[in-house]
Amino acid sequence: MKNIWYICLLALVVFGCEQKDSFYYEEQAELYFVSAIGEPAGSMSKNIDFAFRRTGRMDMNYMYNLYYGDSLRMDSIKLVVSLLGEVSDQPREYNLEVVTPDSLPQTQVILRNPYVLEANATHDTVVILVPRPESRGEFRVDLAFAESPDFGKSSFQDAGKYTITITDRYPKPAGWEDYIY
């Protein structure tokens, strides 16, 4: 009786396991944006406030932060891009494009197209230059991946688009109407 159990167990081990082929990604490779370290997960937006951008230093008495104010003419942001699909032995080029937003006025950003995803890489860091807007207010720029020969149009609804909100305005002080001013 014991031998029958051993034979059944051996048959189960031998015939119960079968080799399966690996999953192959057969679609064209795509790119998508990834939340950077320190940002909330799934956050595909960045806010730039030119008026209240801190210098990283404090005044001589260490009582308050110093700001650039109107002297800051350009800022830069880094975006992390990730690959969906198989890596390649060759460097591949991709482009970013500005998509017209619906809600806020649009301003300029400097894109250094084409960007290059190095050979055997799955991530890349993109530097975007944002010049200070010519007028005061709040602006918005939406970035998306343009089609390229190496990558298809991104099919991600949330991670295929990145929103940059640019603010350049000073709020009116609470006591502005006082006789002091």
Shape label: elongated
Instruction: Work out the number of β strands.
Output: 10
Contiguous helical run count: 1
Strand percentage, roughly? 35-45%
What is the CA-CA span between the terminal residues? 102 Å
Q: Main β-sheet: number of strands, strand sense, barrel status? A: 5 strands, mixed
Strand order of the largest sheet: 2-10-9-6-7
Average of the residue pLDDT scores = 77
What is the helix fraction of residues, given as a range? under 10%
Structural class of the secondary elements? mainly beta
Structure report:
With 181 residues, the chain is mainly beta. Helices cover 8% and strands 37% of the residues. It is built from 1 helix and 10 strands, in the order αββββββββββ. The chain has one helix spanning 2-16, and strands at 30-34, 45-49, 54-58, 65-67, 74-84, 92-99, 115-117, 123-131, 137-146, 161-168. The chain has a 5-stranded mixed sheet with strand order 2-10-9-6-7, with no helix packed on it. Strands 1-5-8 form a 3-stranded antiparallel sheet, with no helix packed on it.
Could you outline the blueprint of secondary structure elements for this entry?
Blueprint: H1 2-16, E1 30-34, E2 45-49, E3 54-58, E4 65-67, E5 74-84, E6 92-99, E7 115-117, E8 123-131, E9 137-146, E10 161-168
Parallel strand pairs: 2-10
Antiparallel strand pairs: 1-5, 3-4, 5-8, 6-7, 6-9, 9-10
